[in-house]
Write a structure and sequence with these properties.
Structural class: alpha/beta
Helix content: 40-55%
Number of helices: 16
Number of strands: 9
Largest sheet: 9 strands, mixed
Distance between the termini: 73 Å
Strand content: 5-15%
Strand order of the largest sheet: 3-2-4-5-1-6-7-8-9
Length: about 450
């Protein structure tokens, strides 16, 4: 029988039989040229700083300290001064007071280093150093993954999620934050105030009033929560959002269904798109007229970039991996999860913390991949205990973190679900109870349950 240890050659193991750490990738030539250029031309320290270069990526200790010495001395150098002498004095001072623990290079070593300066190419060498630093972080993460996977205490929920999150952060973001005086920004604010925004990055919801409320539709990076009591039509309205994005506008969409099967969702899609009564499909009793309408719509449905997954077990690491692949290969922009309480919860002290962890990670997925994530959510029994029966944001079940993490909260309500003879029978309210950065409102739609869809009632 092959054991875990048999996978590794004896020379590759440490004394405690764990895999030996790999050597760290580095580009010593680029580091030397870069630091030499900084010593001879200290202004590049400021220039590279604005480009996101991190001196911590320099692997050779004394070269890194020399760079920091130039950072501190760059405003103090005098014209005609031998800069390597000033750097040497600074390094000796740091070593004497215990700040710098590595050996101070000799003056001769610094003179020899300065001969490698390459003026005008500092940015190119900085990119070489940064590239090796990314490679080093990936190698370190790989080794850490090996240790986690080899450990008897391996936890698939915690360890896989940690590894994936660390890998996503292996490439440090560059130029994401800029320091700018308000005087340079205010002109842009004035221009935006008088120029109607474009909706190029928005995903239409399929409902005119919702699109108007959300300035064109769902935005990248948003977490949208759709909450309702059971049997209100959460899955139906979620499929409406998916159909509008994928079939009507060709926007790549993923529908994660933890409740309905793929065949049922396909039937509901056909019913809604071709106006075929759902019970005709379920009973295999479609009429000639039904099939004629189906023939008109089937090509556009089949061509739509809509992927449906009905796996009963969905964990955060699995979802993140699937989204990463579809973003890279298909340009995925919209993800719908039906529904939050059925997702596999990470280990936590209690259910509330577990749900909060799911909610927070769904928001991070939306931000990290620049997509919209819509998650359906069960409400508690609060609406049924009120006379009016209308839901409120505080009814979100099991965790207040859901409301906190969401950019938009939509609560679905139908009067006729409680009172069959209601004067509003056939109507449904999409109650926008939270809209970060925008107004809230109640949007009235028509519920056509026999076609498994909600339709617009917007006034034109």
């Amino acid at each position: 029988m092959t054991t875990d240890i048999d996978l590794w050659a004896t020379d590759d193991l440490t004394a405690d039989n764990s895999p030996r750490p790999p050597s760290r990738p580095c580009d010593l030539e680029a580091e030397q040229v870069l630091v030499a250029t900084a010593v001879m031309q200290p202004a590049i320290v400021d220039e590279l700083g604005t480009e996101g270069f991190d001196p911590a990526d320099i692997t050779t200790d004394w070269l890194r300290w020399a760079w920091w010495a130039v950072e501190e001395l760059r405003t103090e150098f005098r014209d005609g001064e031998l800069k390597h002498l000033a750097v040497h004095r600074k390094l000796e001072a740091w070593h004497a007071d215990g700040r710098m623990t590595v050996r101070v290079p000799s003056i001769e070593s610094l003179m020899e280093l300065c001969n490698q300066a390459h003026f005008g190419a500092a940015s190119w060498y900085a990119r070489r150093v940064a590239k090796k630093a990314i490679a080093a972080r990936v190698v370190a993460l790989g080794y850490d993954a090996i240790l986690k996977g080899s450990s008897p205490a391996f936890n698939e929920d915690i360890d896989v999620a940690t590894i994936q999150a660390d890998l996503d952060g292996a490439v440090r973001p560059v130029d994401e934050e800029h320091l700018a005086p308000i005087g340079e920004l205010i002109d842009g604010s004035i221009e935006r105030a008088t120029t109607p925004p474009t909706n190029d990055d928005r995903i239409p919801t399929g409902f005119i009033d919702l699109d108007s409320l959300f300035c064109g539709g769902w935005a990248p990076g948003q977490l949208v929560v759709v909450g309702a009591r059971p049997a209100m039509g959460k899955s139906t309205v979620a499929l409406d959002f998916a159909r509008a994005a994928a079939i009507r506008y060709g926007i790549p969409t993923l529908f994660e269904s933890l409740e309905m099967g793929k065949d049922e969702l396909s039937d509901r899609t056909l019913s809604a798109e071709a106006r075929i009564p759902l019970h005709h499909l379920k009973q295999g009793a479609a009429t000639d007229e039904d099939m004629l309408r189906a023939a008109r719509r089937v090509a556009s449905i089949a061509a739509a970039p809509l992927w449906i997954n009905d796996g009963a077990l969905l964990s955060l690491p699995t979802l993140r991996a699937r989204i990463r692949n579809l973003v890279r290969t298909k340009g995925l922009r919209l993800v719908i999860v039906d529904y939050l309480q059925l997702m596999q919860a990470p280990r936590a002290e209690n259910r509330q913390q577990a749900v909060a962890e799911i909610s927070r990670n769904l928001k991070l997925i939306a931000k990290d991949f620049g997509i919209t994530v819509i998650v359906l959510c069960q409400l508690n029994r609060g609406p049924e205990q009120r006379t009016e029966k209308k839901p409120m944001v505080s009814d979100l079940r099991e965790s207040g973190a859901i409301e906190q993490d969401a950019d938009i909260v939509i609560l679905l309500h139908r009067d006729d679900a409680y009172e069959k003879e209601s004067p509003r029978a056939g109507e449904a309210d999409l109650i926008v109870g939270k809209h970060r950065g925008g107004p809230t409102a109640t949007i009235t739609t028509a519920f056509q349950g026999h076609y498994s869809r909600f339709i617009d009632m917007a006034q034109t």
